[in-house]
Design goal:
Elements lengths: L1 E7 L23 H14 L6 E7 L1 E2 L5 E2 L2 E2 L11 E3 H13 L3 E2 L6 H11 L10 E7 L6 H11 L4 E7 L6 H7 L18 E5 H4 L3 H9 L2 H11 L9 E2 L7 E2 H4 L22 H6 L33 E5 L6 E5 L4 E3 L25 H16 L15
Parallel strand pairs: 1-2, 1-8, 8-9, 9-10
Antiparallel strand pairs: 2-5, 2-6, 3-4, 3-7, 11-12, 13-14, 14-15
Helix pairs in contact: 1-2, 1-7, 3-4
């Protein structure tokens, strides 16, 4: 999946030096757009193959005096791939740099950005080999409603979903209309949208609930992707099969459940540290760090061989490494499950006491002494070696 991000740089957001502005250059924390970039970017990043974002802005006056409704945040041209940045950190860096070099202007036109995302889908040569998500972050003051509806209708048969995230205090009536849940969109010339490709999310209402925000951002994408695949007659690939001497053939996707890796946190400062995200979410009042449903971590593949004959792990366990993160995980071949924590072998039970020694000898002295020794050894739980045995009594 490929993610295209479009950020609203129009003057309706307020002057960047005003603390009430949605683009306020906050020296001690994140502004509203940065909060949305972090929280929603972290959600979508997990579904991107290369963790890259194609990042654009719209509605700003550029340093050359031109007002643009589709410009690369990194200052590059709009040629294919030139606007890409790496991860949420790259988004934040490009946004901050752009904010100091452009002038918030207007009007708020969505159509050019939707058309740009439409063009991006033309890179997909084989239907089913890729899919695009356009993320628009805006204050909702749209000025080209008819042109935007036309652009959505034109793109509705492409490998594209559009997620509009509204920031600020507006009521977002027009954004909800674009969502099309109540009434299907129809272009000015009467063409009806071929499939629903728009989802609107109010960041203001969900920013304090990370899991619910993740749910709403992703809510319609699975059905939208599936409807596109069906429209192009793209069949799902069969489940991969693996064989193992431990448990025979099983479906790879059914046999193992990988535990979540847990969070870490980013702090509201001039730099973003994605290795520790939960503290940043708490500082922004977003609650716990959202996770992509069903994909809290990359699922390590099931083993195709039994564990090595010798290991310090308990019997039936094998240590492997996640190909994406390099982190060690542990496979339990008996229960067909995985976990991140290293298992420990249970303490070995004490050896069973030896059976009583019975000797068939003439007389009873030696037999009696050996039986008594065996009983003492059983009671003490350890080997007892006498210094001397009494001579047997004969007769």
């Amino acid at each position: 999946m490929h993610v295209v991000v479009a950020i609203d740089f129009t003057a309706s957001n307020g002057p960047v030096n005003n603390p009430k502005s949605l683009h306020y250059k906050n020296p001690t924390g994140w502004n509203s757009y940065q909060q949305a970039l972090i929280s929603v970017g972290e959600i979508l990043e997990k579904y991107s193959n290369d963790r890259m974002f194609e990042a654009y802005g719209f509605g700003a006056k550029l340093p050359n005096g031109q007002v643009s409704h589709c410009f690369a945040l990194n200052g590059q041209t709009n040629s294919d791939g030139a606007a890409k940045v790496h991860g949420v950190q790259g988004l934040l860096d490009a946004y901050s740099h752009c904010l100091t070099n452009v002038e918030l202007y207007g009007p708020t036109n969505f159509a050019p950005m939707i058309q740009r995302a439409h063009e991006c889908t033309n890179r997909i040569r084989v239907p089913g080999s890729g899919y695009y998500v356009l993320l628009i972050i805006t204050d909702g003051e749209i000025t080209d409603m008819d042109a935007t509806v036309n652009a959505i209708v034109d793109a509705s048969d492409k490998a594209l979903s559009i997620v509009i995230v509204g920031v600020g205090p507006e009521n977002f009536v027009k954004m909800k209309e674009l969502d099309g849940d109540d009434q299907a969109l129809t272009s000015a010339n009467g063409r009806r949208v071929q499939r629903d490709i728009v989802q609107f999310v109010s960041f203001r209402d969900l920013k304090n609930n990370g899991p619910l925000l993740a749910k709403e951002v992703l809510y319609e994408i699975p059905d939208q992707l599936t409807s596109y695949m069906k429209s192009k007659n793209v069949k799902p690939l069969p489940k991969p099969k693996v064989s193992s001497n431990w448990f025979g053939e099983v479906g790879a996707s059914d046999s193992f459940r990988v535990p979540s890796q847990g969070g870490g946190g980013i702090q509201p400062s001039s730099s973003y540290r994605p290795s520790d995200p939960s503290a940043q979410f708490a500082s922004m009042g977003l609650g716990s760090m959202p996770a992509a449903p069903g994909m809290q971590s990359h699922a390590p593949p099931p083993p195709d061989l039994p564990p090595p004959p010798y290991s310090d792990l308990p019997d039936g366990w094998e240590e492997k490494k996640d190909a994406n993160t390099g982190r060690a995980y542990f496979v339990n071949h008996r229960t067909k499950s995985t976990q991140w924590e290293r298992p420990t072998a249970p303490s070995a039970p004490p050896p069973p006491p030896p059976p009583p020694v019975l000797l068939a000898v003439r007389g009873r002295g030696l037999a009696h002494s050996l039986l008594r020794l065996s009983e003492e050894r059983r009671l003490l739980g350890r080997s007892v070696v006498p210094s001397r045995l009494a001579a047997p009594e004969l007769g």
